[in-house]
Amino acid sequence: MVNIERLQQLSGIIGNSSAIQQVIEMITQVAEVDISVLITGESGTGKEMVAKALHKFSKRSNEPMVTVNCGAIPSGLIESELFGHKKGAYTGAAEDRQGYFKFAHKGTIFLDEIGETPLETQVKLLRVLESGEFMRVGDSKMMYSDVRVITATNSDLETEARKGNFRQDLYYRLKTVTINVPALRQRIEDLSLLVERFALQFTRSNDIPYRGFMPEATRLMKQYDWPGNVRELKNFVESILVLEKGQRITVDMIARQLRPVKIPVNPNLPILVDRSPEQAEREILLRQVFLMRQDIQDMKEIIGGKTVLNPIDEIQYLPHAATEIQPVPDSMNGENFPMIRGEAIGDMTLEALEKEAIMRTLQHFNNNRRAAARSLGMSERTLYRKIDQYGLERKIKGRS
Ligand SMILES: Nc1ncnc2c1ncn2[C@@H]1O[C@H](COP(=O)(O)OP(=O)(O)O)[C@@H](O)[C@H]1O
Ligand SMILES: [Mg+2]
Fold first, then answer.
1. Which CATH class is domain 4-182?
2. Is residue 37 within a helix (H) or strand (E), and if so which, with residue range?
3. Which of 68, 69, 38, 43 is nearest to 54 (CA)?
4. 261 with 342: CB under 8 angstroms?
């Protein structure tokens, strides 16, 4: 059996999370065995990389791997593409044509988006899977291909099979060995490593100087939910490096480009109509975070832990500080608190959030302290004290 580290190195699959390590371990276990494998996972999670790794570490690695995107081939053509056709099979079939199963003989065929194949074709696929036998379109002669079949899908085949959109028998046949590639948000701890690698690759091959990402920038990226997974992350890293050519990537640059995680808007909060949607969303987020601050403070006091505070040197979008990490009560990770993702907790001090919230609220109310205090739910006296404490006087004046 191939060694896990070696496989990871040679396949280029990045990640230290236990989720991705499990995927890699699975690959080492099944790569060399001549069985079909179903790879599931959202789009952009790396299913094709897994398929390539399976082939690369199989006994068939010296033969080709033929990749077929079943979702991209019109249903009227798919059988001819997969199995080939005989001259005269239909109008326009001027020549005999070999299909992908023939090309892949002795090698591997990777059927991507298998859920998209028409039901009629699925019968034929089941047959090839079971016996290697197939017939070209318009031919009555049985052909044979010695091929290992790897399939992938981002749809829930079980549900599709139950609804009758996918053949049950084929589904059971395919799912025997399933590798599920988790979404990036489920292994967000891998983000830094991925960002670093993508950034290095991209800047090197495009002769762009690379000065790295600030830790706060990476932290903010970890709070986004990456619906397009690693593919989206890679594109994002590349585009930001182009936009900010040669500069060290700061949290502000990220905040400008990245739409934050969708936030359920609290109906009690004022909607900021004079703001762009992004600004409004950000302000709402900050207000909510700020409102939560009090609860967190209370909880901390209940837990009885002490917090080591960090001096704050700069106002940031989502500030960080290496505070002593308090155990987070379970209730805070759940649906009741969708505002802060689990990973973010421990990365921000209440002080930094408070400072930011006060500063922005003051700006919002054109420095009207009474209005700001009311909006923040604190007495004016407290607000004055905080303004002093955080040196906001200077900052606000300096800006206006
Ligand atoms: N773990 C990973 N390490 C490095 N690159 C990855 C990883 N996962 C995905 N990628 C990259 O992300 C992009 C999408 O991967 P791909 O295998 O095509 O995803 P899928 O087939 O699931 O849509 C590719 O550029 C791929 O190289
Ligand atoms: Mg793909």
1. alpha beta
2. strand 37-40
3. 38
4. no
Question: Global pTM?
Answer: 0.68
CATH 1.10.8.60 domain residues, the chain: 185-257
Ligand 1 pocket check for 42: Cβ under 6 Å: no
Q: Is 14 in the pocket of ligand 1 (CB under 6 A)?
A: yes
Which residue among 231, 235, 237 has the greatest number of ligand 1 atoms within 8 angstroms of its CB, and so is best to mutate? 231
CA 120/CA 131 separation, integer angstroms: 18
pLDDT tens-digit map of 48-101? 999 999 999 999 999 999 999 999 999 889 999 999 999 988 888 889 999 999
Query: What CATH number does domain 185-257 carry, 1.10.940.10, 1.10.8.60, 2.60.120.10, 3.20.20.10?
Result: 1.10.8.60
| DSSP-derived secondary structure for 223-262 | TS--TTHHHHHHHHHHHHHHHTTTSPBPHHHHHHHSPPPP
In this structure, which ligand is nearest to the CA of 50?
1
DSSP state of 137: B
Q: Chain centroid to CA 228: how far?
A: 5
